[in-house]
Amino acid sequence: MIDISAKRSVCRSATASGTIHLKKGTIDAIRSKHVKKGDVLEVARVAGIQAVKRASELIPHCHPITIEACEVWFEIAEGCVIVHCRVKAEAKTGVEMEALTGVSICLLTIWDMVKSLEKDDQGQYPDTRITDIIVNEKIKGPGDE
Q1: Helices (H) and strands (E) in the chain, counts
Q2: Which of 3, 52, 56, 124 could form a disulfide with 102 if both were Cys (CB 3.0 to 4.6 A apart)?
Q3: Is 121 a residue of the active site?
């Protein structure tokens, strides 16, 4: 890992997002909460928050930091669900990897929960894809240092 011992802790935040593309019927089932495995978005939210707290366990050079806030929210659009994750911490290093990890695990959790609805007759997922995982914003210190 990079030596950050000389750096001072400052307030940091990052917001990331990503998209999972799904069939219309799957989107309808998520909206109406008629998915066999349960409430897709609430399970994904919890999974994302857990992932944020474990990013340093999953990414070898990611420093362990104390997460002070984590917010996960969703937009249901035409043929997709967009996941957003905002992370805040008082730390010596940024929190963008935590936000990206949260988004990624939310998206994978959604896929896992709806895969029975997404499979075709051959058991494949021709319509399902995860795209556009990005850091939307990264802030260091009061304002944008």
Answers
A1: 4, 4
A2: 52
A3: no
Which position among 112, 120, 127, 132 bears the catalytic label? 112
List per-block mean pLDDT (blocks of 10 residues) for the chain, which spans 145 residues.
93 98 98 97 98 97 97 97 98 97 98 98 97 97 55
Q: What range does the domain containing 77 cover? A: 10-140
| Strands of the 69-77 sheet, one edge to the other | 69-77, 80-91, 10-21, 129-140
Does some domain include residue 76? yes
Structure tokens at 109: 């959790």
CA Rg, the chain, in Å?
A: 17
Tell me whether strands 80-91 and 129-140 are parallel, antiparallel or unpaired. unpaired
